[in-house]
């Protein structure tokens, strides 16, 4: 009898670490709605933008994995990938809702304080401008490099992890989810728009996002349409840097030379974040702190939360 009970217990599926993060995100959304905060939905364009940035590489890995086996599909590997994808999709949805809520929950704006820190560190500012200009010149003036290179890191990291095995893929996707969860919550601590608000020569995108954000706050969250789902401003912390750091850490453990490429890319992203006036200098180390917290979470909880180490290669 005890053996039968033991077999049933071993067959019971365990939650993956990222599923715990998704469950926690659901609790946050429920708590927010209980206290009167609205849950915002994206329109088709915003949903596609989110999918392309965070989910498309993993979805592609699932599809390729199904057809790569040439008649022998590893159902456990496909199931793992689908669970990772579903959890990450919900975390992305929760993340943007929390980012929208941040300026409604905490009405204090820290832009003036963060700008003062920037002014006290002119050499660091100049270093960021120099690195950004130097790397942009080697990229032949690639105007959207900050965005495109960041997305490219996601794509390449997912592919590398998928080839390395199920454990590596789970570790990477869980780290991405952890950065979104912890980073989203950190927006509530010291909300800031970004240093571009002090510049009259803002880019059209910066002006559009600022106009929406001010209207959204003034209306108490009522002035919203689905296209605004991806428009909330959140300078503190820099999650571009946080994601870049965890992607570099995971990839470097598998392939040193790709890790070196990622490290150089991370330097560009950090410098360009400041040079383009999306972020203050202080946002960079706080972004690294979010990455370190996410790394600690994965190291501590992943083995106890349904790690894929015992599964076959993804």
Give a short synopsis of this structure.
It comes from Roseateles aquae. With 314 residues, the chain is mainly alpha-helical. Helix content is 71%, strand content 0%.
Walkthrough of the structure:
This protein is mainly alpha-helical and 314 residues long. It has one domain. It has 12 helices and no strands. It holds the Pfam family PAP2_3.
Characteristics of this structure?
314 residues; mainly alpha; 12 helices; disordered C terminus; Phosphatase PAP2 family protein; transmembrane helix; transmembrane; Aur1/Ipt1; membrane
Ordered list of secondary-structure elements with their pairings:
Layout: H1 2-11, H2 17-34, H3 44-68, H4 75-105, H5 111-120, H6 122-138, H7 145-164, H8 166-186, H9 204-218, H10 239-254, H11 256-275, H12 283-301
Helix pairs in contact: 2-4, 2-8, 3-4, 3-7, 4-8, 6-11, 7-8, 7-10, 7-11, 8-10, 8-12, 10-11, 10-12
Separation, N- and C-terminal Cα atoms: 35 Å
- The overall number of domains is 1
Gross geometry: globular
* SSE string, helices as H and strands as E: HHHHHHHHHHHH
Pfam family, one: PAP2_3
Protein name: Phosphatase PAP2 family protein
Keywords: Membrane, Transmembrane, Transmembrane helix
Transmembrane segments: 20-41, 53-70, 82-103, 149-169, 175-198, 256-274, 280-302
């Amino acid at each position: 009898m005890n053996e039968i009970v033991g077999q049933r217990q071993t067959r019971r599926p365990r939650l993956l670490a990222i599923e715990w993060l998704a469950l926690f995100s659901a609790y946050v959304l429920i708590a927010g709605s209980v206290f009167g905060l609205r849950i915002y939905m994206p329109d088709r364009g915003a949903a596609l933008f989110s999918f392309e940035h965070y989910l498309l590489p993993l979805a592609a890995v699932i599809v390729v994995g199904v057809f790569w086996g040439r008649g022998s599909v590893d159902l456990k590997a496909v199931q793992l990938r689908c669970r990772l994808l579903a959890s990450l999709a919900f975390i992305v949805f929760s993340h943007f809702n929390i980012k929208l809520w941040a300026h409604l929950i905490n009405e204090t704006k820290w832009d003036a304080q963060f700008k003062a820190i920037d002014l006290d560190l002119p050499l660091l500012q100049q270093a960021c401008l120099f690195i950004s200009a130097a790397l942009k010149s080697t990229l032949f003036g690639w105007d959207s490099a900050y965005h495109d290179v960041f997305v490219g890191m996601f794509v390449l990291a997912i592919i590398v992890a998928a080839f390395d095995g199920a454990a590596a893929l789970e570790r990477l996707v869980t780290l991405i989810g952890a950065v979104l969860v912890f980073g989203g919550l950190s927006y509530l601590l010291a909300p800031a728009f970004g240093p571009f608000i002090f510049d009259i020569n803002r880019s059209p995108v910066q002006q559009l996002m600022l106009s929406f954000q001010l209207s959204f706050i003034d209306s108490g969250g009522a002035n919203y349409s689905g296209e605004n789902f991806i428009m909330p401003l959140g300078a503190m912390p820099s999650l571009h840097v946080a994601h870049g750091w965890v992607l570099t850490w995971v990839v470097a453990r598998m392939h040193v030379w790709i890790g070196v490429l990622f490290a150089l890319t991370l330097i560009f992203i950090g410098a360009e974040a400041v040079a383009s006036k999306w972020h203050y200098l202080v946002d960079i180390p706080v972004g690294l702190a979010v990455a370190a917290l996410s790394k600690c979470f994965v190291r501590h909880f992943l083995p106890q939360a349904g790690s894929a180490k015992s599964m076959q290669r993804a």
